[in-house]
Structure formats: structure tokens, C-alpha cells
């Protein structure tokens, strides 16, 4: 029997290393190994046997293959392959040429940058690369500053991906939720419920639309519609389908297979029952496989060489090694945390010292700090989703899903503001500015979203309902931005007079 202080040591080591070394995999690994040593009274042989058993049980347990874990890993790998195939082909260039001939005004250009980010939802990093490179010609033509383009790219990458269960984030988060035995309902339905309360992601999307529509911030745009220093290649018409068809196949295929598997598993004719009984893992795996095969077929028929496709596929496989390793380590440390009763110890402490009225705001700010310092929202998910869920489950079970939403929202906010985040760096480089320029110009809008998010979570804490909280989020960020725009107009008028 371990004492509470010793039981907390693996968690403290994980958090300290995550914040200082900024290596999530190392931090999780140290937490796993130290936890196993504590559980086995610091016996090397017993600890190695324990770790080996835990690793095997992630894939094979009680004479059964762990289909959920295997399907999730397969889905992540397939989405990584699809992302790399599209980003290394001419699909992005084709779409850029097609889009270039559809935009007529600066406002349309800005809104196009926003909505393109909404559509390219399969992966946050792919969205940063694709949208930035596609829209650079538009930004030059219509006088959109590179910092503003980077803001549109970043604000519609991770926030959108965190809301969509069919993105590369979806299986990752759903897998973590599925390991929480105290959650009722399916992991998929819980993800959807949590996404609805991810007020930071929602407010960020609203703010980006308002910024695009009114041209708020980033200085004045040129009066002329076209930048005379930019010469567009208007002879190339381009085609959107090389990029759109695989994404549509992924979305439609996932939904269709989920509904089909659910309909076969129940006698009900209700859609919600079909989704509740759906085989989420195999549906997303099969849809991802179909989307990858379709991508390969489209690229081959468009002239891409077979050897190049093989190389891109191999690169895509390698890019997902780190993400899959983090997920596997997340499952392992989740088991260690459960065996050490760490969550129960923290929940007991929180119940005595933390008011439930500030639970959601506290989790949001804590996760934002972790994600900002580490530059990793995924790493913060891995560490804080199980712990935040356990704490909320003990303090107030009604706040369980909102607490998980607060973890998600805080992680995305911290990642959004971090200069060492991979999405921040890619958004800047693909848009033509430095990461420092991008982060500095994005921070005011991120803080508006964070303030609106805190308002929404506090209203949920006061049991005023989801409708009131969401309305407050929408109204607060909208009023704040419109006030900024009005102040800008008044200052311009005074300068003229």
C-alpha cells in the first residue's frame, strides 16, 4: 500500500518534465516507469514484468484482441498517410488555381481563407500547410497582410479539428474518453457533447468570421482591389476535386458506415440509436482506408508516379509514429494512474480546497498554461483529460462533461498562443511571416476568445444552462470585436479631421 505523497510522484514528474523539457513522450514515459516502480515496491524485475503485461494488454487481453485500440491506431496512421499524400502532391496547387478564379473582392478573399480552413478539417497541421499555401496568392492579390492570413490559418485549424470527430484528433480524443470507465454513453456521443461546450474553439471561429467580414485589425487594406505588384497565373484554371473528393469520401464514408453498423446492431429505426450502437472504430478505419485508396487512385490517374506515391505513403506512416506513441503512452499512464488511485487522491484534495464554482475556469486556465508552455495540445489532452474527469466526477458529476470541455478548450487556447506550437510555426511559415509576428498579432483575438470562454464556463458553473452560456459566449466576443471596429473607425475619422 503506497502513501498518497509517493503515489503522486509519477504525476508530478510527468507535469514537471512536460513543462520544463517540453517533451511529452519523455514526460509520459518517466511517469509510466516511476509509477510501475512504486506499484512494485521498486523491484526492477517485477516492474519490467508489470510494464510488459500492461503493454500487451493494450492490444490483447483476456483472450481477445482490443479492437478499439487497434482501430484507433490504424485510423490515425491512415489519416497521416492521406494528409501526406495530399500535401506532397499537386492537389493543393490545383485547388489554389481553381479558387483564385472564383474570388472577386478582398472581403471574399478573407472569408474564403476562413471557410477553407473549416473544410480542410482532417488534420490541424495539414490545414495549416494547405490553407496557407493555397491562399498566399489571394493575400497578395487583395492586399491581405501575411500576419492576417496566418491568423485565419491558425484560427481555423486546431479549433475546427478539435470539434470534428472524423478528424485526426477525433480518434485520439475518443480513445482517451473510451478509457474513462466513469463516463456513461458511447465515447463518440461524449465527444460530440464535449465539442458543443468547447467555447474557446467556437468563439475563435466566430471571431475569425467577424475579423474577415469587417477587416478588423492588422492595419488598413489597400483601397485597390488588386495589388498591382502581384501577377496571377490566371491561365491555369485548376480543379478542386483532387483535394475535395478524398475529404468528402472520408466524411460521407465515416457517417455512412457508422449508421450502417448501428442499424445492424439494433432493431431501432432512430438515428440517435444507430449512432449509439455504431462500431465507431471500424467505421472510421474503413472510411479512412477508402479515402486513402481513392487519394492514391486520383493521384495516379493525374500523373503522379508510382514510386513517388510509395515514398509519400512511407513518409506519411513515419509522421504518425510520434502521435501513435503518445497515444499508447497515454493508455499506459492512464492504467498506472488508476492503479495508484492518483485521480481519487487529487479529487479528494480538490473537493476539500477547490470550490466547484471555479472548477471549469480553473481547469481551463491550468490546461492553457500547460499547453502554452509545452506547445502541445495533444500532450495536455493526454495528461489532463483523465485527471480533470476524475476530479469533476468526485466534486460534481453534473460538471463532468463541461470539465472535459474546459480541458479541451484550455489546451487549444494555450496551443493557439504558444510560439513553440507546431501549428503556430506552420501557420506563419506557410503564410509568409515569422512565428513571432504571427503570435503577437494573434494574441489580442485569442484573449477575446478566452475571456468569452471564461464567461461561458462560469455560467455553466452556476447551472444557468448550455443555452445561456453559449449565448453569452457569442454575444461577448461579438460585442467586443464590434466595439474594437467602431473605435478604429472613430480614430480614423479624428485623424482625417
TrEMBL record:
The keyword Flavoprotein is assigned to this record: no
Ranges annotated as spanning the membrane: 67-86, 111-132, 169-192, 199-221, 241-265, 286-303, 315-337, 358-387, 466-484
Domain Na+/H+ antiporter NhaC-like C-terminal: 163-459
Superkingdom field: Bacteria
A Gene Ontology cellular-component term: plasma membrane
Bilayer topology term: Multi-pass membrane protein
Cellular location(s): Cell membrane
Keywords recorded for this protein, A-Z: Cell membrane, Membrane, Transmembrane, Transmembrane helix
Pfam families in the cross-refs: Na_H_antiporter
Identification of the protein by name: Sodium:proton antiporter
Taxonomic source organism: Parashewanella curva
Lineage of the organism: Bacteria, Pseudomonadati, Pseudomonadota, Gammaproteobacteria, Alteromonadales
Amino acid at each position: 500500500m503506497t502513501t498518497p505523497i509517493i503515489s503522486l510522484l509519477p504525476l508530478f514528474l510527468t507535469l514537471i518534465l512536460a513543462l520544463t523539457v517540453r517533451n511529452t513522450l519523455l514526460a509520459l514515459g518517466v511517469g509510466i516507469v516511476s509509477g510501475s516502480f512504486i506499484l512494485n515496491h521498486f523491484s526492477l524485475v517485477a516492474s519490467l514484468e508489470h510494464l510488459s503485461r500492461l503493454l500487451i494488454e493494450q492490444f490483447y487481453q483476456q483472450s481477445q484482441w482490443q479492437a478499439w485500440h487497434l482501430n484507433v491506431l490504424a485510423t490515425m496512421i491512415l489519416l497521416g498517410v492521406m494528409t501526406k499524400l495530399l500535401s506532397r502532391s499537386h492537389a493543393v496547387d490545383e485547388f489554389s488555381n481553381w479558387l483564385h478564379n472564383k474570388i472577386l473582392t478582398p472581403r471574399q478573399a478573407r472569408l474564403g481563407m476562413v471557410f477553407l480552413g473549416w473544410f480542410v478539417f482532417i488534420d490541424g497541421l495539414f490545414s495549416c500547410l494547405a490553407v496557407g499555401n493555397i491562399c498566399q496568392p489571394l493575400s497578395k492579390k487583395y492586399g491581405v497582410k501575411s500576419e492576417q492570413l496566418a491568423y485565419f490559418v491558425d484560427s481555423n485549424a486546431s479549433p475546427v479539428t478539435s470539434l470534428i470527430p472524423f478528424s485526426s484528433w477525433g480518434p485520439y480524443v475518443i480513445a482517451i474518453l473510451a478509457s474513462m470507465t466513469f463516463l456513461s454513453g458511447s465515447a463518440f456521443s461524449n465527444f460530440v457533447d464535449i465539442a458543443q461546450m468547447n467555447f474557446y474553439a467556437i468563439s475563435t471561429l466566430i471571431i475569425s468570421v467577424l475579423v474577415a467580414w469587417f477587416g478588423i485589425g492588422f492595419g488598413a487594406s489597400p483601397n485597390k482591389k488588386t495589388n498591382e505588384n502581384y501577377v496571377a497565373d490566371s491561365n491555369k484554371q485548376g480543379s478542386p476535386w483532387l483535394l475535395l473528393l478524398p475529404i468528402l469520401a472520408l466524411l460521407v464514408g465515416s457517417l455512412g458506415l457508422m449508421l450502417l453498423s448501428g442499424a445492424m446492431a439494433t432493431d431501432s429505426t432512430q438515428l440517435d440509436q444507430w449512432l449509439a450502437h455504431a462500431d465507431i472504430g471500424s467505421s472510421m478505419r474503413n472510411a479512412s482506408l477508402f479515402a486513402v485508396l481513392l487519394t492514391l487512385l486520383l493521384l495516379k490517374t493525374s500523373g503522379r508516379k508510382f514510386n513517388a506515391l510509395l515514398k509519400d505513403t512511407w513518409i506519411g506512416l513515419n509522421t504518425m509514429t510520434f502521435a501513435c506513441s503518445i497515444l499508447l503512452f497515454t493508455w499506459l499512464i492512464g492504467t498506472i494512474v488508476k492503479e495508484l488511485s492518483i485521480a481519487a487522491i487529487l479529487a479528494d484534495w480538490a473537493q476539500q480546497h477547490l470550490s466547484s464554482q471555479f472548477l471549469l475556469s480553473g481547469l481551463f486556465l491550468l490546461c492553457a498554461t500547460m499547453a502554452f508552455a509545452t506547445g502541445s495540445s495533444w500532450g495536455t489532452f493526454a495528461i489532463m483529460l483523465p485527471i480533470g474527469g476524475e476530479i469533476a466526477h468526485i466534486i460534481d458529476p453534473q460538471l463532468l462533461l463541461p470539465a472535459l470541455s474546459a480541458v479541451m478548450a484550455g489546451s487549444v487556447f494555450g496551443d493557439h498562443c504558444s510560439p513553440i506550437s507546431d501549428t503556430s510555426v506552420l501557420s506563419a511559415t506557410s503564410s509568409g511571416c515569422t512565428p513571432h509576428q504571427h503570435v503577437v498579432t494573434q494574441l489580442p483575438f485569442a484573449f477575446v476568445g478566452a475571456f468569452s470562454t471564461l464567461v461561458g464556463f462560469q455560467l455553466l458553473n452556476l447551472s444557468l444552462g448550455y443555452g445561456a452560456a453559449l449565448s453569452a459566449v457569442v454575444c461577448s466576443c461579438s460585442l467586443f470585436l464590434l466595439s474594437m471596429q467602431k473605435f478604429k473607425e472613430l480614430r480614423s475619422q479624428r485623424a482625417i479631421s
